[in-house]
């Protein structure tokens, strides 16, 4: 990635400061939804061109499909976010950068799909950039839900290679930076935010955006030999963990546990953004690490356990992951977090109505069973008159009970 100067990093075309208050991204969410954020518009369809990039452009929808196969959550009700508008994006992006996305060649560079340069921009806006904007809106909303409920997972987002003036690495909008800006603008009590970036690649986007910010702590653990190797951005990392290629479970998980614990002890955040890329998985042609599927599940559990133990709100973003199998791994990891009671997946799913319906049926059965028992006793040949027992036996009027 091309290097830019520090001055360019902070330039933002006289950005208005009151945009967060006017945004529709922070909407009210009913208690009938679990804190998972997704909508079908996340997925990218570009006449098959999306297949020219290793990224699974329908990964996000596949995660939800796998989750709905799980027992008890077949009718999982997720939260549907709004699309980030230009005024929303201006909180972190310069006007000149947003204008640059109206040129197809720039979108092609960001998505790393060269033929996209020949596609009319209006088509790219609808099929590529709009999905990114919906995912960005999902990340922002996740920040609000995490503050209200303690946790939230955006089944998308994590565009950690994009910053205020430049995109790249399949990242067109700086959703991590935007999420943090919204939290800081809407929750004055939050003064310290931590980014835990465990994607296989360095998160140079948010690092450039928050260069020199003492209220933002960045823990970044990545493969030292791959893209973007952004030397300037590394200056913003407070805890840098550089991995050798093909690092395996034992070493990887030990480093995760040690450095997440160390970072939390060192900084005491009031909000955590967890960038949970699955491109660390063995076989990923871009991440070039060798963490197993079970290793990813254990990694996410370690992070959630350490953060929630401190009662700190956490936002999880799914970020990178370039194999078709990653969707199932993400779903399995979310399900594991639920089974370990680190997140509450039973909130407002079909479990609640099922239990309510079952209870009503059971009460009806009991009601009619008691009534039938009473009728049987009253009309029994053992009675001389209706409802009067033939003898003084105390047990003769006892109905069958459960």
UniProtKB/TrEMBL annotation:
SUPFAM superfamilies: Arginase/deacetylase (SSF52768). GO terms for molecular function: histone deacetylase activity, hydrolytic mechanism. It catalyses: N(6)-acetyl-L-lysyl-[histone] + H2O = L-lysyl-[histone] + acetate. One of its GO terms (cellular component) is histone deacetylase complex. Residues 53-336 form the Histone deacetylase domain. Keywords: Chromatin regulator, Hydrolase, Nucleus, Repressor, Transcription, Transcription regulation. One of its GO terms (biological process) is epigenetic regulation of gene expression. Its EC number is 3.5.1.98. The keyword Hydrolase applies. Its main location: nucleus. Belongs to the histone deacetylase family. Interacts with HDAC6. PANTHER family: HISTONE DEACETYLASE 11, HISTONE DEACETYLASE HDAC1-RELATED. Responsible for the deacetylation of lysine residues on the N-terminal part of the core histones (H2A, H2B, H3 and H4). Histone deacetylation gives a tag for epigenetic repression and plays an important role in transcriptional regulation, cell cycle progression and developmental events. Histone deacetylases act via the formation of large multiprotein complexes. This is Histone deacetylase 11.
């Amino acid at each position: 990635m091309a290097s830019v100067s520090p001055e360019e990093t902070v330039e933002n075309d006289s950005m208005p400061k009151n945009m967060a208050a006017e945004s529709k991204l922070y909407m009210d969410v009913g208690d009938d939804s679990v804190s998972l954020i997704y909508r079908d518009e996340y997925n990218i369809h570009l006449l098959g061109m999306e297949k020219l990039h290793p990224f699974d452009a329908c990964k996000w929808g596949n995660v939800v499909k796998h989750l709905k196969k799980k027992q008890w959550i077949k009718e999982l009700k997720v939260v549907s976010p709004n699309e980030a508008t230009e005024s929303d994006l201006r909180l972190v992006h310069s006007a000149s950068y947003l204008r640059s996305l109206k040129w197809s060649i720039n979108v092609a560079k960001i998505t790393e799909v060269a033929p996209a340069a020949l596609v009319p921009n209006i088509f790219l806006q609808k099929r590529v950039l709009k999905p990114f904007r919906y995912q960005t809106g999902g990340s922002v909303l996740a920040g609000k839900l995490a503050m209200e409920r303690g946790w939230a997972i955006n089944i998308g987002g994590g565009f950690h290679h994009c910053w205020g003036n430049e995109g790249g690495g399949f990242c067109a909008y700086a959703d991590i930076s935007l999420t943090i800006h919204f939290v800081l603008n809407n929750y004055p009590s939050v003064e310290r935010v931590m980014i835990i970036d465990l994607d296989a690649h360095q998160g140079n986007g948010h690092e450039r955006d928050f260069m020199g910010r003492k209220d933002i702590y960045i823990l970044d653990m990545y493969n030292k030999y791959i893209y973007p190797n952004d030397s300037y951005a590394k200056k913003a990392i407070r805890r840098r963990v550089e991995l050798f290629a093909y690092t395996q479970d034992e070493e990887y998980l030990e480093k995760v546990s040690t450095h997440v614990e160390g970072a939390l002890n060192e900084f005491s955040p009031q909000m955590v953004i967890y960038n949970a890329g699955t491109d660390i998985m063995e076989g990923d042609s871009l991440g070039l690490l060798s963490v197993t599927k079970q290793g990813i599940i254990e990694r996410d559990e370690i992070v959630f356990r350490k953060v929630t133990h401190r009662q700190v709100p956490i936002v999880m973003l799914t970020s990178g992951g370039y194999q078709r199998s990653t969707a199932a791994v993400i779903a399995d990891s979310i399900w594991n977090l639920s089974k370990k009671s680190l997140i509450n997946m039973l909130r407002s799913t079909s479990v609640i109505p099922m239990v309510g319906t079952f209870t009503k049926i059971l009460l009806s059965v009991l009601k009619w069973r008691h009534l039938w028992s009473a009728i049987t006793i009253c009309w029994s040949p053992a009675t001389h008159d209706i409802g009067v027992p033939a003898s003084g036996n105390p047990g003769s009027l006892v109905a069958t009970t459960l």
